[in-house]
C-alpha cells in the first residue's frame, strides 16, 4: 500500500469518513517528520493534511520514507519524536518502536543506551562515570515492557534494572501507568529497589510532560520515598532528531535552591 508513495505512481487518495482515514508519517531527507492524511499525490509531490499546520506539499525528491501510523498523538501535525518515551530519568508507559534507539547523557556522568527490540519491548545498558572522582563505576542493564490499554489514552509499562558496582549488586523493579497522549501525559509509577538480593524501600514517582510547541516540551519528574522527596522541573528542546534537556533538581533534604541539570539525547537509528 505504501509503495505508490515512493515509486512514482500517480493518483489521489479517495476521501473517506473520519473513522477510516489512514494517517501517514512522512520523513524528509533532512530529518523533519510530518504526520497527517494524504489528500493528493503526483509524480512530483505529496500533499499532506495536518491538524496544526494545515495542508503542506512535500516534493518527492525530499522524502526519505513514508509509513502508516496508528498513533493518534501524531495527528496534530507535529513530528513524532522518540523522546516521548521518557522524562528525565524515568520512563513513561509509552515504549520505543522496533528499531528505535537512543543514547542519553547528563553532565557527562550519567550514560544510558536503550533500543527497541519490538514495539513493546526494549533493552538498555548504562553506567555512571564515577571514575572522574576515582570511584568504582556502577554498570547496569535494563529490560522494559509497555502496552496500550486504550490506544493513545492509557498505556502501562514495567521493567527491571540490574546493576553491579565492584562486588555488590543493586537494582529495582517498577511499574508505570500513563494517562494521555505521547506528547501530553501524566504518569504514576511504583517501584522497589534491592541491594545484594535484599529488597529495600518502595518509592512512588509522578511525572508529566506537555508539548507546548513543535520543538519544546515541559517536563516534570518527582520521587517520594518515606519522608524524602526529590523533584526535577525543566524542559526538552528538540534539535532535529536529538534533544537538549535542562532543568533544576530540588529536594526537601537540600539546604540550597537546587542542582542544575543539563543533558542530551542522541538517536541511534536512522
Tell me what you see in this structure.
The model is unreliable at 1-20 and 71-75 (pLDDT under 50). The protein has strands spanning 24-28, 33-41, 45-49, 55-59, 63-68, 101-106, 110-116, 121-128, 139-150, 154-165, 168-180, 184-195, 198-213, 216-225, 228-239, 242-251, 259-267. It has two domains: 3-74, SH3 type barrels; 82-267, monomeric porin ompg (Porin), CATH 2.40.160. A hairpin with a 2-residue loop joins strand 13 and strand 14. The protein has no helices and 17 strands.
Give keywords.
270 residues; mainly beta; SH3 type barrels; Porin; 2 domains; twelve-stranded antiparallel β-barrel; five-stranded antiparallel β-sheet; 17 strands; 58% strand; elongated
Low-confidence stretches: 1-20, 71-75
Radius of gyration: 21 Å
CATH class of the largest domain: Mainly Beta
For the biggest β-sheet, the strand order reads: 6-7-8-9-10-11-12-13-14-15-16-17
Q: What form results from the Cα inertia axes? A: elongated
The main β sheet shows up as: 12 strands, antiparallel, barrel
What structural class is derived from the secondary structure elements? mainly beta
Give the distance, in angstroms, between the N- and C-terminal Cα atoms: 22 Å
| Number of alpha- plus pi-helical segments | 0
Q: H/E series, N to C?
A: EEEEEEEEEEEEEEEEE
Fold-level CATH name of the largest domain: Porin
Report the sheet-strand fraction: over 45%
Estimated helix fraction: under 10%
Tally of separate domains? 2
CATH superfamily of the largest domain: monomeric porin ompg
Give the overall average pLDDT. 85
Name given to the CATH architecture of the largest domain: Beta Barrel
